[in-house]
Inverse folding.
């Protein structure tokens, strides 16, 4: 069955540190990939998405992610985090050839020390 | 556009009670879905719909029913609430299957 793994449950960084959050999925076919963010007290919103083409995608607020098909990964990166990046981050995968389900990872809580 | 709206924002139920969580979108999106969010488990798909009159089960459908009589509305029904259904429920919609999803503000449900 299709699954999504986010191995980092809670990440704590200082401001200006670099960020990389891991996301791996278990489906061998064509996929659509997403990163969503949930700021404290708010609902989820899209950070970035990959459907096809350049495997390095850029999203809002300086975030980017790289799709590495051979590793079944879609890691999220930001070169220099800010206190306002404190949030929970979710990776999501849609397998294009399966029934119409989008599966989310368990999320990574990011805490930024001012 | 209001986007995706959900009511109520908060609800407390007793075990065995039934209720309906409402979800509506005004973007004419075909795809709608319901998720529950629990600590450490992320979002789990309960039910989804690819258009009016078409629904299907997600990862955790037991104890929940849905229907999709119109494009705009996608209510989630709890037939007999259980404490295990205490959670935050999110409704989402997207223009097409596999596209960007827009989420509602959520309903925080407590079952005593």
């Amino acid at each position: 069955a299709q699954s999504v793994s986010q191995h980092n449950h809670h990440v704590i960084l200082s401001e200006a540190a670099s960020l990389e959050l891991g996301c791996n999925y278990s489906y061998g076919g064509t996929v659509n990939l997403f990163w969503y963010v949930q700021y404290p007290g708010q609902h989820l919103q899209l950070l970035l998405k990959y459907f096809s083409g350049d495997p390095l995608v850029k999203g809002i607020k300086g975030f980017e992610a790289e799709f590495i098909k051979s590793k079944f990964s879609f890691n999220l990166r930001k070169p220099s985090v800010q206190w306002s990046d404190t949030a929970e981050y979710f990776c999501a995968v849609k397998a294009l050839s399966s029934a119409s389900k989008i599966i989310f990872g368990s999320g990574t809580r990011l805490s930024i020390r001012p | 556009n209001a986007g995706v709206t959900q009511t109520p924002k908060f609800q407390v139920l007793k075990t065995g009670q039934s209720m309906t969580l409402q979800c509506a979108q005004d973007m004419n999106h075909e795809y709608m879905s319901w998720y529950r969010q629990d600590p450490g488990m992320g979002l789990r798909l309960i039910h989804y719909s690819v258009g009016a009159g078409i629904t299907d089960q997600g990862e955790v459908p037991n104890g929940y029913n849905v229907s999709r009589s119109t494009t705009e509305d996608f209510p989630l029904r709890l037939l007999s609430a259980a404490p295990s259904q205490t959670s935050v429920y999110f409704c989402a919609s997207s223009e097409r299957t596999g596209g960007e999803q827009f989420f509602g503000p959520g309903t925080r449900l407590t079952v005593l």
Observations:
- The two ends of chain A are 41 Å apart (CA to CA).
- Residues 33 and 93 of chain A are 5 Å apart (CA to CA).
